[in-house]
Amino acid sequence: MMKKIGLVMRKIQFSENQGPRIYAERLKEIGKDMGVDIVFISPERHVSEYDWMSGYEHEKGDLVNYDIVLDQIYKEKIEHVIYTVSGFTFLKMFIKNSVIFPHSFPDPALTGYQMMKPFYSMVDKAIVHTNYLKEQMSDRYGVNDVTVIPIGFEESIANQYYDPSQVVENRVLWIGRDEENRRPDLALEYARQNPAIELYMVFGGIRYKESMKKYTIPANVQLRFALTRDEIFKLMNTSKVYWNCSRFDTFSMPLSEALAMGKLVVKPEHPCYRHIGSRHAFAGNEENWFELVNMALHFPKKVSIENRSYAFDHFSMTKMREGYQSFFNSWLN
Question: Which of 102, 122, 256, 299 has a 20 to 30 Å separation from 173 between CA atoms?
C-alpha cells in the first residue's frame, strides 16, 4: 500500500500554469516512483486574486479554510503534510508531521510580506529550493531543520527542444506575472527604448490578459498567456536572452530552465538569485539592466554551453528526485 502525503496549496496555485502547479505535478510524479501517493489538498472558499489589497490578503483566506483542509486530510487518512504557504503553518497543531515548502517568503521586497511574518513563528521544519532560503530560515526565524531540494526541470524537454540554430539574435524572453514585484512595466519600457529587439512576455495565468490592458504595449512586444511546458521550452529555445527583473523570487524556476536551454541570463542582484551563478548569468539592477540585456544580445555565440552544463549539474529533475528520495526515507519512517 502506498504511503500518503498531503500537498496543501491554494486553489489558484493548482489552477494556473506557473511554478506552484509545476512543482506539484513533478512531486506527484516523483512520489509515485517511490511508492508515495501525493494527494492534492485545496481549499475552495474565499480565494482572492487581490492579495496586495488590504483585507484580501491570501493568508486571511487560508485561515478561514482550515476546516475544509482538515476534512480532506482526515478523509484521506493522511499523517504527513507538505504545505506551501505560510497561512497553513497552524496545521502543525493538528498534524504532527507537517513541513513547509514555501512558495513565498516574508522578504521586505515582496508586497504583503508583513502579513506572512507572524506565521513563521510556528515553523519548525522546512524544505526549500536554495541555500539562501535555508540561511534566511535560520537567521530570521531560528528554523534549523531545513532541507535544500531544487525544483528540477525536465531533462527530456530541455533536450527535445534544444536547437541553437533556431535562436533569433534579437529576441528577449521575460516570464512573470502582472504584479508589482515582477516589474512588467520595466520590461515594457525596455522594449519601448529598444525598438529593434523582440520582447516576448509570458504570463502563467489567463487572468493577466485583462490586467495587461492597462498598459500601452509597444509594437515589438508579444504577449503570451498560460503556455504549456512544451510551448515555453520551444519559445525559450528561440530566444537569445532570458531576463528576470523581479524584486524577489522564492522559486525562480524559469531562470534555471533558461540556463538549461543555454540562454544568456540577466538577473537581479538580490542574493535570493545567488544560485543562478553560471558564467553567463549577469546580475544587475534598474540602473543597468537595459545595457546588460543589450550586451548579452551581442554575445558572439548563440548559446552558452557553460550555462546549460551548470543547470544540468545543479537543477535537473534527477537532482530533485535524489533529494526527495533521501527526505522521504527519513521523514516517513
Answer: 102
What is the reported pTM? 0.89
Q: What's the rounded Cα separation, in Å, for the pair 323 and 190? A: 39
Handedness of CA 187, 166, 225, 60 (dihedral sign): negative
Q: pLDDT per residue over 253-264, tens digit each? A: 899 999 999 999
Query: Amino acid identity of 36?
Result: V
Q: Which residue has cell 519548525?
A: 124
Give me the sign of the Cα torsion angle 23, 28, 31, 36. Answer: positive
| Cα 247 from Cα 181, distance rounded (Å) | 5
Phi and psi for 116 in degrees, rounded to 5? -75, -30
Q: Return the exposure string of 219-244: e unless at least 16 CB atoms fall within 10 Å of the residue's CB, then b.
A: eebeeebbbeeeebbbbbbbbbbbbb
